[in-house]
């Protein structure tokens, strides 16, 4: 760090700021889904597809986007992508149907991939020889994770001024800022990483087909009740066939998108599992958001503001983790600290699922979540990249992305929703069995509510029906909170379990090894 000239710090900050809008192209409207759903009036299943498709478009285009990014001059590329992002982002405002909205959002997601890579090239080339790799990875994670929370908050604030369209306009302003920064900091228009274009088209098409099946499972698995539906069972069988076809394909391809040779490195195997595990632990955030909106009645601004507490944990943990990795601290030390923070986060929230909770009660748990992300994300990114040769860098990256994003976050989130629904039904059945004349409290509650509706002028029959409906709604709400508590109790145990394994088997008692591959931050 000492060898970096003072004047280049300004350039470095500018280059990193340039990456932020592309990281957050889909984050600005994270809390505005209900408004967008109401605007287009589509069914929940159709809207599920509209939500998932842009993410899968981003992931599917990633390998090709990285190849194309190396062929085009960087300044031209970043200016073109920023301008096209403004067009696609603005076009989504004037979409006449949810289908066109999804198309424009998917194009924006694809452009964001190219934008991220184009804006990262100067940082990788100019500062990689100077930065120790833990520092480079730490800065990337700091910007990516921190900007996500801020963009979700600012996007929600802009939405509160008028409607969800203001969040989109806010993103356009950021793309305009990216154009200005590109004119300032990209002095030369060259393609420094250009090489003969070679791409595994056949493998890419197989991967896209794989993502299409996963998309179907994410969007419709829960509504079809998973394996009880023949189409879901057929889709799962088709996934196995696709994997088999890909394994045959790689035997006849020189540079496949995911080269199985990468799994000869044990850190890639365990790193991919670690990616999945961390993604699974972080994926329970949707439960808290649902608790805030569906039970507590928080509006989107309240939810976004409450989640800002995560930033405190990030601002503490990521710089500390970066420093410890730079000083060659043992991997196990950071892993244990990160898993313990995730365990504390789930444990604290387990005791906070009750009616009447205030936003301040989420403050400490969210700090622990930020600490967990800050400790685990940089070290997992470095660990899975350790000693992997550059020619297998893309394979390492795609393996981690599929593990964390596709299987843990997207597919795992859909499965989690099913678990919650099933647990809710079980708890509601148990609670409903207690609503009998023998339960004096329930009977008193029913009588009081009936009398209330009678005083409102309803007939005895209508008052009785309204009272029973009110009591049923309260039972449904209580059963949902019990389901949330069950999920978080199990997750707390799963978070502390790796600590036991690390201590019993004395794993990770060494610093991170050498890292030579590009730190593509996904």
UniProtKB/TrEMBL annotation:
Keywords: Membrane, Transmembrane, Transmembrane helix, Transport
Main localization, broad class: membrane
Localization per Swiss-Prot or TrEMBL: Membrane
Membrane topology: Multi-pass membrane protein
Statement: the UniProt record of this protein carries the keyword Transmembrane helix: yes
Keyword Repeat: no
Source species, domain of life: Bacteria
InterPro entries named among the record's database cross-references: MFS_trans_sf
Gene3D superfamilies hit by this protein: MFS general substrate transporter like domains (1.20.1250.20)
Name under which the protein is recorded: MFS transporter
Residues that span the membrane, as ranges: 7-26, 46-65, 77-101, 107-125, 166-186, 201-220, 232-252, 272-296, 308-326, 332-354, 366-385, 397-420, 487-505
A cellular component term, taken from the record's GO annotations: membrane
């Amino acid at each position: 760090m000492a060898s970096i000239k003072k004047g280049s710090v300004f350039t470095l900050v500018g280059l990193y700021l340039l990456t932020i809008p592309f990281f957050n192209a889909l984050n600005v409207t994270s809390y505005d889904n209900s408004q967008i759903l109401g605007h287009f009036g589509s069914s929940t299943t159709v809207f599920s597809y509209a939500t998932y498709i842009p993410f899968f478009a981003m992931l599917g285009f990633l390998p090709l986007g990285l190849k194309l990014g190396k062929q085009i001059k960087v300044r031209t590329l970043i200016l073109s992508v920023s301008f096209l992002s403004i067009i696609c982002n603005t076009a989504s405002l004037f979409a006449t149907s949810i289908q066109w909205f999804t198309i424009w959002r998917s194009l924006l997601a694809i452009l964001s991939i190219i934008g991220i890579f184009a804006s990262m090239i100067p940082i990788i080339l100019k500062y990689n020889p100077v930065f120790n790799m833990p520092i480079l990875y730490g800065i990337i994670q700091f910007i990516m994770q921190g900007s996500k929370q801020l963009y979700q908050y600012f996007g929600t604030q802009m939405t509160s001024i008028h409607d969800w369209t203001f969040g989109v306009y806010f993103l356009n302003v950021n793309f305009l800022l990216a154009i200005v920064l590109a004119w300032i900091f990209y002095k030369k228009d060259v393609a420094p990483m250009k090489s003969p274009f070679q791409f595994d088209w056949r493998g890419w098409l197989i991967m896209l087909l794989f993502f299409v099946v996963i998309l179907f499972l994410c969007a419709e698995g829960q509504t079809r009740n998973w394996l009880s539906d023949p189409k879901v069972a057929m889709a799962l069988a088709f996934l196995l066939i696709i994997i088999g076809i890909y394994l045959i394909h790689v035997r006849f391809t020189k540079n496949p998108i995911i080269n199985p040779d990468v799994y000869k490195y044990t850190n890639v195997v365990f790193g991919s599992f670690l990616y999945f595990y961390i993604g699974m632990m972080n994926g329970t955030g949707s439960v808290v958001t649902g608790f805030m909106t569906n039970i507590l009645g928080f509006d989107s601004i309240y939810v976004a503001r409450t989640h800002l507490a995560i930033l405190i944990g990030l601002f503490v943990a990521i710089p500390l983790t970066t420093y410890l990795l730079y000083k060659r601290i043992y991997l196990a030390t950071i892993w244990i600290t990160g898993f313990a923070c995730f365990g504390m986060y789930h444990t604290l929230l387990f005791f906070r699922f009750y009616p009447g909770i205030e936003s301040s009660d989420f403050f400490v748990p969210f700090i622990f979540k930020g600490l967990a992300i800050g400790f685990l994300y940089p070290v997992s990114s470095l660990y899975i990249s350790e000693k992997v040769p550059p020619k297998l860098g893309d394979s390492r990256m795609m393996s981690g992305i599929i593990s964390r994003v596709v299987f843990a976050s997207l597919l795992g989130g859909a499965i989690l929703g099913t678990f919650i629904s099933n647990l809710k039904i079980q708890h509601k059945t148990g609670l409903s069995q207690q609503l009998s004349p023998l339960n004096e409290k329930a009977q008193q509650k029913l009588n009081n509510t009936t009398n209330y509706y009678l005083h409102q002028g309803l007939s005895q029959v209508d008052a009785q029906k309204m009272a029973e409906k009110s009591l049923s709604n309260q039972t449904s709400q209580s059963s949902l909170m019990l389901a949330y508590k069950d999920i978080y109790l199990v997750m707390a145990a799963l978070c502390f379990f790796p600590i036991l394994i690390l201590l019993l088997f004395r794993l990770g008692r060494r610093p991170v090894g050498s890292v030579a591959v590009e730190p593509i931050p996904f």
